[in-house]
Write a structure and sequence with these properties.
about 350 residues; alpha/beta; Spo0b-associated Gtp-binding Protein, Chain: A; Rossmann fold; 2 domains
Length: about 350
């Protein structure tokens, strides 16, 4: 299935049904009163977050969605039925933006979450509604209120615990393939990864989800390269894993560029916890590795990890460092209506009194 994380679609809620002008007509009833029913409400446009979806490919070829018009009112005080709603099913992590591509309308973060994006138009009143003491035979009815319409942008931001960052060919896909069941494309040329990949990693009987995005290059925040479009996928992560290619002579310069690009893209992203790793140490001698650690330490106060994703050297240490930050960021789970924290606070020693 092709990965699609953005879509531009048109949505329109249904028009309200028109009210009816009708009078009661039965045998032996000479002056039947008004009995025109009201029109039905137009259908809503609803956004629903569902499980089992991980892409917006459904909106690649179908881009216009219109709810049904409410049924018109009829005689004998029969009100029209509501128009059928149109429900847009989206994966977890989808954000809905206005046509200006800046105004966030709703953020869909949980399975089952629903949001009425556009209200259907109300149905018009039939002439029975306008009957009064001074007007026993009104001959007026309201038309239904028109529905609303707009263009919207759908943007998917993957929900992952850890985000994998690095320049092209830093070994991100190799690391993901070595630590999870994910099967990303791996090759020895830049920009092998063309779309984000997710992998579930198990370490010490605990699981977390990692997102691998295309390599970032200088100018990414302005649209250069592939990674700029996908930086949003790591915005929700608890921690960033920054891989540096230890065999690249410019690895320190690349690190500085990456930090600058993150800050220019979103300050919040640059402030996230980071695990800094020099990768491909199996291709370095001990002296070369020590030299690279010393060079990197001059530009950062971060603890520097070293590993080889191919040879699986020091990989568990990196995973445990990630897991420690992820677990600290996860909310306490509720058990029988009480959180673990509340249980600890309210627990008191037993007393016969």
């Amino acid at each position: 299935m092709k990965f699609l994380d953005q879509a531009h679609i048109f949505v329109k809620s249904g028009n309200g049904g028109a009210g009816s002008v009708s009078f009661r007509r039965e045998k032996y009833i000479e002056f039947g009163g008004p009995d025109g029913g009201d029109g039905g409400r137009g259908g809503h446009v609803i956004i629903k977050c569902v499980d089992g979806l991980n892409t917006l490919i459904d909106y690649r070829f179908m881009q216009h969605f219109k709810a049904k018009t409410g049924v018109h009112g009829m005689g004998r005080d029969m009100n029209g039925a509501k128009g059928e709603d149109v429900t847009l099913k989206v994966p977890v992590g989808t954000q809905i933006f206005d046509d200006d591509d800046e105004t966030l309308l709703v953020d869909m973060t949980e399975v089952g979450q629903e949001h009425i994006l556009l209200q259907g138009g109300n149905g018009g009143f039939g002439n029975a509604y306008f009957k009064s003491a001074t007007n026993q035979s009104p001959r007026r009815a309201n038309p239904g209120i028109p529905g609303e319409e707009m263009w919207i942008h759908l943007k998917l931001k993957l929900i992952a615990d850890a985000g994998l960052l690095g320049f092209p060919n830093a070994g991100k896909s190799t690391f993901l393939a070595a630590t999870s069941a994910a099967k990303p494309k791996i090759a020895d040329y830049p920009f092998t990864t063309l779309h984000p990949n997710l992998g579930v990693i198990n370490q010490d009987s605990k699981e977390f989800v990692m997102a691998d995005i295309p390599g970032i290059i200088e100018g990414a925040h302005e649209g250069v390269g592939l990674g700029h479009r996908f930086l949003g996928h790591v915005e929700r992560c608890s921690v960033l894993l920054h891989l540096l290619d230890g065999t690249d002579e410019k690895f320190v310069e690349n690190y500085v560029i990456m930090r600058d690009e993150l800050a220019k893209y979103a300050e919040d992203l640059a402030q996230k916890p980071e695990i800094l790793v020099i990768n491909k140490i199996d291709a370095l001698s001990e002296d070369e590795l020590a030299e690279r650690i010393a060079l990197l330490a001059k530009v950062t106060d971060q603890k520097i990890y070293t590993m080889s994703a191919v040879a699986k050297i020091n990989v568990p240490d990196v995973l445990r460092a990630l897991l420690k930050i992820i677990e600290a960021d996860r909310p306490l789970e509720a058990v029988d209506g009480f959180t673990e924290e509340a249980e600890q606070v309210t627990e008191k020693p037993w007393s016969p009194l």
